[in-house]
Amino acid sequence: MKPALTRMLLASAASLLFIAAPALADKIRIGSPYQTSTLDPMRSAAAGSIETFGQLYSRLLRIDEAGQLAPGLAETWEVSEDGKIITLTLRDAKFSNGEPITAEDVVFSLLRVRDTPDSAYPAPIQTLDTAEAVDASTVKLTLKHAFAPFLGNLEVFNAGIVSKADVEARGEAAFVENVVTSGPYMVEAWIPNDRLIIAPNPNYWRTGFPKNEGAELIEIPAATTRVSMLLSGELDVVRDVPWSQVAEVTANPGYAMPMEPSTVVYVGLLNHARPPFDNIAVRQAAAMALDTAAIAQAVTFGAAKPANSTIPNTLKYYDPDLKVNGFDPAAAKAMIDSSGYDGSELTILVSESAESEQQAVLMQALWAQIGLKAKIEKADAGTFWSRLTSGDYDATPTWYYNETTDPDLAVRWALCGACGNNAYYTFYANPEVDKLVEQGAAELDETKRAAIYAEMQRITTTEVSQIPIYYPPFANAYSTALHGLGMTPALQWTLEGATLDK
Amino acid sequence: MHYLTFIGRRLLHIVPVLIGISLVSFLLVMLVPGDPVRLVLGPRATDDAVAAMREAWGLDRSLLSQYLTYVGNVVQGNLGDSLKYRLPVWDLIAQYLPRTAFLIGYVLAMTVPVTVLLAVTAARREGDWPDQVIRLLSVLGMTIPVFWLAVIFARLFGIQLGWFPVSGYGEGFLGHLHHLFLPAVSTSLWLAPVLTRNLRGALVQQMDADYVAACRAKGLPERLIFRRHILPNSVLPTLNLLGVMIAFLIGGSVVVEIVYAVPGLGALMIGAVLGRDYFVIQGLTLVYALVTVLVTLVIDLLTAAIDPRTVG
Amino acid sequence: MSVISIRNLSVTFPGDAGPVQAVKDVSFDLEEGEILGIVGESGSGKSVTCRAMLGLLPRRATLGGRILHHGQDLTQPAAMQAARGRDIAMIFQNPASHLDPLMTIGDQVAEPLIFHFGMSRAEARAEALKLLDAVQIRDAAGRMSAYPHQLSGGMKQRVLIATALACRPKLLLADEPTTALDVTVQAEILALLKTLNRERNLTMALVSHDLGVIAEICHRVIVMRQGEIVESGRLRDLVHAPKHDYTRLLITSQPGRLPQMTDQRPDSAPLIELRDLSLHFPGKGDKVVRAVDGVSLSVRQGECLAIVGESGSGKSTVARAVIGLNAPTGGDILYEGRSVVGLKGEALTAFRRKVQMVFQSPFDSLNPRMSIQRTIAEPLWRHGLATKAEAMDRALELMDMVELPRSLAGRRPGMLSGGQCQRVGIARALALSPRVLIADEVTSALDVTIQAQILKLLTRLRKEQDLTVIYISHDLTVVRKFCDRVAVFRTGQLVESGTTAEVYADPKAAYTRDLIAAAPDLDQALAGVT
Amino acid sequence: MTETSAINLPARDRPRLKKGTIELAIGVLIVGAWILAAAGAGIVAPADPNALDLAAVLAPPGPAHLMGTDNLGRDILSRVIHGARIDIWMGFIGVLAPLCIGVLVGLVSGYYGGMTDTILMRLVDITVAFPFFILVIAIVGLLGPGLANYFVALGLVAWVAYARLVRAEVLVVKRLEFVQAAKALGFPDRAILFRHVLPNVLGSITIYAWTDAVMVILAGASLGFLGLGAQPPTAEWGVMISDGQPYIVQAWWICFFPGLAMVTLSLGFILISDGLSRRLRVSQ
């Protein structure tokens, strides 16, 4: 009796030990510091969620491998002569639950982003006046006025198409369990604060895609841990390898770091609303004191390119020849001395990221050389954003990126004083620039647009709306067993075309 | 009978503590600067969107009314929804509680035998070289920052030697053991010295106790005296410290959770604190407090079971 | 035939200022069936000698000489391990700390039986029950599963004796076995030891500081001082013809041999009156501890009143109530006819200047971190009676008064002897020139020779300062010599009171008679034992 | 402490061995050396701890920089020496603030008992129920990073240990006769508490405080790791270690030397604590 009992106990213990693991072996494991905080494309405009939305929800248009606008859910589209009416014809596509994707769904998705009060980022389709389902597969979008970047904006992460029927039926729950998706993948499991596991969507409209078994998007806040995991074979892809570890990773033949161009720009924001940076001479001196080449070298070990303009260098109409307020400490010192700056200490606000902290330290040291005294105040993200938005700072090194290669969203965010965000909370407000922003958006002629944006860059860089620091590439590391995976400037993984060697 | 009254009294004792805790955890979060909404919606969110969400979540109401709603919900077993994930807080906690519990269990399973072995060895050879070596090692163990050790371990055992995974929770019991090995060792290396010092001290003190002399006078051999008399009497203070340490680990495991990418309650808490996810912070502090209170209760009951004097 | 022979035993401890020799070249024999008394003051090496016989010295002690037992030298660990517990057993002064608090007493008594005789647990417990019966523990069967903290002090000592007797040893070492116990319990334990000696032919060595106790049961006595044997022989011979000065001093310091120090003043007016005084405290659960219960008593101006009783009699509680340290729960306390219960602020401060107290423990009653001069001076300046500097000067005068050399002024209590500390305590109490001095067991922790000095000092001060003294004590022999009137307490109640002469000559209450009978007294013992 | 009646020698003759003297001496030596280095940092340190030298980043230890330089070309040796100021200060204030609060609460609670005691101890229960580290993280995370807020957090949380310790000791000491004597002599409560009770409970508190200082420094370092530590460019060891982590392969010296400094200082603290406790014969 006794031995039998023992055997039974042992057997049940053994079965406990070897509970079959879900077959995750073939998934591409992507480690990123950024979190998926919601599966509803309208709900967040934060990194992490942005990447996720792209994999779950198809947009009307997509950016192809060459970076050009290509058909997405919309097979064809027509723009009216005055640029105000866009008519799109949908292809025969289905949601992951097998229901067809109709013009109704498109109209619902776009208006939801535009009209919901707490929609995170309605800006890209703000110019949309009406959207109308002409028939099941035809959508007619009417703009308030001609708006050049609109087509590009239809590719932005939150313009993904969701199921009207499902969302109306289930409300927020539609984005928690059994999420209906229109993109290449659907949700296999979501463990908030840990990882999102996605599996191919069998109903995805692009035949032959995705070319892999899905992916695990794993959230790993500690940078050294991400690298350790990569090197020990626990990850296939790492987003944001610390610059200091780039050499170590690339020295290993099993990994590649292509340093894809990004639309990220690091800028030193200055608070124009209070002394001393309300004084243009002080701002110019501050800009000229910063040896951006040395900063880029010290912080990124030369991976990033020193910045010369207030907008990212990968955007259309970026002006590579702009050269104002270049590094000149002697001139900067002279300007400070004659500027009337009273010598009072200013505050460099910095959020807790190693990169920003180093920039702050360098900023502080370089400014000290021209007699601009500063102290650094580190703040966690919550405090950082409330202090930034309320203008409770003098300077802060930070960054932004642009969702599209069109500069419209970038200048509205970073340079425009009348577009709702006080020019990235610098409280820089130049009516001329504001006017140029609207002109640039409405102008359909390429050369004229180029001239408008060049002018805008010249004015803002000269007036130092903010100090451009450097343009970093994406420091992503890929296992050489992976093929075809990369990141677009708009923070989207080209995941659907990637394959993983066994 | 006595024992039951004792338990009853201890349980009753918890009520005012819990009320205090709910109030403190609420105020802690509410009175402090930082805006959760901006973090949830992302930097590009418009001010209108931020205001709309604040209203939707009742964050614009008076503190008292928010507290009453909160307590009302908690009493019904509802910890509220996460601002960030829009999921019930309890679901989030339930997801991570087993991980942290497993990690702590693992740490204890690793630490306690080692502690007893080292402390007994040191105490029995008090002043001799094994004692000196153990004391030196335990002092060193206490002074090395856990995260530093963790980074080195990940490098050495994970990457160089490839013996253990440097991240994750693994699948199945053995998988958990395998994946959590490095986090557990890193924690143990700090915990074992603390406990060893305490137990050794108690043993050394008890070895001088009068009843030990009485046992010797009875002619009992040292080994027997040690096992039957000195050890049980010495274990009590260490048991108490162990309780404190378990409570500490529930939150203190956050460092290894982050270094080894095993998100548990600690990582959830850090995320919630930095993201100002009010209801998650409140829910977690309540759960933490509850667990702490329960651990203390268990330790008290164990103490009472060992020491007849506690029950009276 | 000797059971044990000590030859040239010396014990050395390492100390701050070089090694300290606690026992120097001590030799003696213990004959089968005899009870040997080892007497001496604290620090005389008597306990160390006793512990050395069982190998119970701390590891840092170094041992010289030989301890021979049946041809084996017990200074060798193997021989010692074979002998102890089986042939030689020991009981200790503080029974409470010598029992493992986490083990039932049944198991503790059974333990040596299991180990030495290989008995099963059940057998051993059965035997243990017999042993507990043999040491006269009531309801022994019920007590088997009790824990030490549930027993009284006397009970614990009986348990220790039972444990010691478990393996039927030939020699029992008893290290101050009754010092921590009440007199009546002490008498019972001594009687028990005597019975065991007679019935089991058990050889014993009894270590004690109290010649009275030794005299009760010992056949032969060794007097030790500063680690050496100064004299030994039959007790009667020793008492009648002491050869050594120290022995002489020891004998003359015996309370029974002290001069009469009373100062009868029968007609003086009452200074303090207790009226139906009660102090009840909440106990475990719903029980109420009636520490003092309906006591009425008066203390007359200038007299010395003794409050006598055993532990738990409420004698100290009464004293603490008088001085306002414990609030009465019923009744009243009058000082010069006015109630002093519930006094606050100035009135309380003023009253406290009038009534002062000296405490039992010489070391614990002084702040170990304060020099004795400061300690004595503190009441003066705290009460605003002098500046700090004046108070410090006055402290020196007070030291003269209690016969403390001024050279000690800067020392802390830890560097003083017990007797000196007690003098500091008295000086501090007298600093405020009180009218009443409450002395709570002030000599119970002191050696007899020192006790005699302190009593002499108190007698002198009493006359000089015209003090009224309340003397709390368990020692009836001292009280008889020192106090004018006596009040006997038992479990919170006043049993009997009257002039000392009357009460001793003709005790009314049975309890008083028991107390008087139980008090060990050298001369009575000698007369009785012969 | 259990009552020991081991051998009836008077207290002063009881063989009080100078146990722990060696530990104490080494501990004092180490801590003393660090304090000296910290006090004279301006003289001892070869360079300005915050001076950047972008021409000499990640220089390995050598004659020019004995402990090498970090990624911004700052001299590690100078940063370690100046860091001693921060970390010793951190240990000092981080212990002193909770100690003062805790001692006060413990004294009052233990001495007066009754309702005061009940209320204060309930407060202690509530504070204890929050896991220490979590509460510190919460407070620092919510108030913002930096040493000042760390101290606030410690002050709010860590006093509990002292309060309990002191209360337990006071309960013993207040029964001692010299305290009773002080009461009987009509001394004011304040005098009794601070002149008679406090000096006699300080021993075990001191012993605990030294070990606590190590906890404070280590927990502070962990906060640095979590991004909640000292403000840049302050040379604080924990922050230096955590900032140096990514360079552990490329430039091991960046986090090794501050780590070594932290271990030695902590070692000094613990040795002092050990030495004291062995001398005063108090168990930890």
TrEMBL record, chain B:
- Share an example GO biological-process annotation for this protein: transmembrane transport
Q: Which residues form the ABC transmembrane type-1 domain?
A: 97-303
Does the record bear Endoplasmic reticulum in its keywords?
no
> What residues form the membrane-spanning segments?
12-32, 100-121, 133-157, 177-196, 230-252, 258-274, 286-306
Q: What is the lineage of its organism?
A: Bacteria, Pseudomonadati, Pseudomonadota, Alphaproteobacteria, Rhodobacterales
Does the record bear Transmembrane in its keywords?
yes
- Identify one Pfam family in the record: BPD_transp_1_N
| Protein name, per record | ABC transporter permease
Q: Which Gene3D superfamilies match?
A: MetI-like (1.10.3720.10)
Q: Could you say which protein family the record assigns here?
A: Belongs to the binding-protein-dependent transport system permease family.
PROSITE patterns in the cross-refs: ABC_TM1 (PS50928)
- Source organism per entry reads Tabrizicola oligotrophica
> What GO cellular-component annotations does this UniProt entry give?
plasma membrane
What membrane topology does this protein have? Multi-pass membrane protein
Q: Where in the cell is it found?
A: Cell membrane
List UniProt keywords, sorted A-Z: Cell membrane, Membrane, Transmembrane, Transmembrane helix, Transport
UniProtKB/TrEMBL annotation, chain C:
Q: What SMART domains is this protein classified in? A: AAA
GO terms under cellular component: plasma membrane
Q: Does the keyword Electron transport apply?
A: no
Give the UniProt record's GO annotations in the biological process aspect.
Answer: peptide transport; transmembrane transport
Membrane topology according to the record: Peripheral membrane protein
Give the PROSITE patterns listed for this entry: ABC_TRANSPORTER_1, ABC_TRANSPORTER_2
Q: Name one GO molecular function term.
A: ATP hydrolysis activity
User: What family is it from?
Assistant: Belongs to the ABC transporter superfamily.
Protein name per Swiss-Prot or TrEMBL: ABC transporter ATP-binding protein
The organism named in the record is: Tabrizicola oligotrophica
UniProtKB/TrEMBL annotation, chain D:
Pfam families assigned to the protein according to its UniProt record, in alphabetical order:
BPD_transp_1
The cellular component terms of Gene Ontology attached to this UniProt record, alphabetical and capped at eight, are: plasma membrane
Q: What are the transmembrane regions?
A: 21-45, 88-112, 119-141, 147-166, 205-230, 250-272
Coarsely, its chief localization is membrane
**UniProt entry keywords in alphabetical sequence:** Cell membrane, Membrane, Peptide transport, Protein transport, Transmembrane, Transmembrane helix, Transport
Judging by the UniProt lineage, the source's domain of life is Bacteria
Key word Transmembrane helix present: yes
Q: Which GO terms describe its biological process?
A: peptide transport; protein transport; transmembrane transport
Q: Name the CDD domains on file.
A: TM_PBP2
Outline the extent of the ABC transmembrane type-1 domain: 84-273
Its placement in the membrane is given as: Multi-pass membrane protein
UniProt xrefs under InterPro entries: BP-dependent_transpt_permease (IPR050366), MetI-like (IPR000515), MetI-like_sf (IPR035906)
Family membership: Belongs to the binding-protein-dependent transport system permease family.
PANTHER family from the entry? D,D-DIPEPTIDE TRANSPORT SYSTEM PERMEASE PROTEIN DDPC-RELATED, OLIGOPEPTIDE TRANSPORT SYSTEM PERMEASE PROTEIN APPC
The name of this protein is ABC transporter permease
Organism expressing this protein natively? Tabrizicola oligotrophica
What lineage, starting at the top, does this entry show? Bacteria, Pseudomonadati, Pseudomonadota, Alphaproteobacteria, Rhodobacterales
